[in-house]
Amino acid sequence: MVLVRNENKTALTMFSDYRGEMKDFALVIPVPEVLAREQINVGDRSIIERVDAFSAPRLVEYFDPDPCEMPVYSARGMSKGTMALSSTDQSSAKSLGVTIEAQYTVGEYDILILGAKESSGLEKWLTEKGYKLPKGASKAIEPYIKQNLKFFVAKVNLDEQSKTGFQYLRPIQFAYESPKFMLPIRLGMVNSDGPQDMLIYAITKKGRVETTNYRTVKLPTGMNIPHYVKNKFADFYRAMFEVAHNKENKKVVFLEYAWNMGWCDPCAADPLTQEELRKLGVFWATESAFNLKSPKVRPGIFPPLQTQPEAYITRLHVKYDAEHFPEDLFFQETGDTDNFQGRYILLHPWIKESKCEAAKKYQKELKGRLTKEAETLAQLTQWKLEDIYKEVGKELSTSPESSEKSSEKWYQNIFK
């Protein structure tokens, strides 16, 4: 979810990792008002990938210097169209307390905006029209009807989808006004075969976004870990997140990134341009407010702009189910503009030969440092420490100290 919010105005982009036949896809989202055609769009997947890359947890790498040259070692740590419903459809809806407020074809999606008096009537009408609703949908819909919300209903128009040339479903975007800063998640749990996993990229004008009805907790960050993790970072991240999730009793929302969008240090990816932000729904972006053409002064780092743009991104990660998240997510924009990044440090040892006294001291201290990194990795991921030691041992085997030992004759130390 990309959740753009200022005052009572919200632009929401939804990109689902849908698994199944496109003909079976259906999306039902509570919305606060009847959406006009101009309020709905089909977005670009690449923009979602850009904002994801910009805010993603990342590895940073440093390299130890030659201990003989630096004796003091420091650990641095949519196309327009309409979809016609027959008079029979209209009559059927009315008899079940369902009102068809609006209908559109937007890109590859057939979209209805529905009102309903009873959840059972809405469930029955949708089922009659070919929507495959899971068991329990009526119960999940009922609270939203009591709040007088409308329902944004989308399914794939297979003819239109075939014209797009895409093998996946593109993001759906819609804009609306509401005093409530929230995301409805309860309805989505009904058709899940397990906990749902969601990334929320909240973009506001001033500062960090947090949940008000659940705790927002910072992801573990800033640790030195063995540098073999570079080749299995995705495995590391999944394991670390699962451990942190369980430690918090599966009832928190994790903060993974918070930063003004005009700069980054270090950068997981280049900052988004004004055009990209507009495509995400940042409706207040103008040339005067967004000067995102600042030169890159060194790799991976964009300096702060003299006038920082009014766009602050908060990346939240939540893994939820009905047991641990019985309520929808409600948010607030805070005044906190402190930078935060999920960031993990790889500190590569010096492996070339050095013969000064400082090098000897460095070699003695290195084993302790690598041991500590291994223990940190085990604590973060609950991976077996002995397996981590094996991987770290492979690193130690490339050190100058190990190379010297390997050059000894096999018999030299037998009789000592």
Your description of this structure?
The protein is of the alpha+beta class and 416 residues long. It has 2 domains: 2-77 and 79-346, no CATH class; 352-406, no CATH class. The protein contains 11 helices and 19 strands. The chain is elongated and about 90 Å long.
Strand and helix map with partners:
Blueprint: E1 2-6, E2 9-14, E3 26-31, E4 40-42, H1 45-55, E5 58-63, H2 87-95, E6 98-106, E7 109-116, H3 119-128, H4 137-146, E8 150-156, H5 158-164, E9 172-177, E10 182-183, H6 186-189, E11 196-204, E12 209-211, E13 215-218, E14 223-224, H7 233-247, E15 252-260, H8 274-279, E16 312-320, E17 329-333, E18 340-341, E19 343-348, H9 357-381, H10 385-396, H11 400-406
Helix pairs in contact: 3-4, 9-10
Distance between the termini: 67 Å
Question: What are the secondary-structure elements, in order, as H or E?
Answer: EEEEHEHEEHHEHEEHEEEEHEHEEEEHHH
Radius of gyration using CA atoms only: 27 Å
Domain count: the total is 2
Shape designation: elongated
Oligomer: single chain
Total beta-strand segments:
19
Classification by helices and strands: alpha+beta
> Please, what is the average pLDDT?
84
What proportion of the residues form beta strands (DSSP E)? 25-35%
Which residue ranges are poorly predicted, with pLDDT under 50 across at least 5 consecutive positions?
Answer: 71-82, 291-299, 398-406
Question: What is the makeup of the main sheet?
Answer: 9 strands, mixed
Helical content class = 25-40%
Number of helices in the DSSP assignment? 11
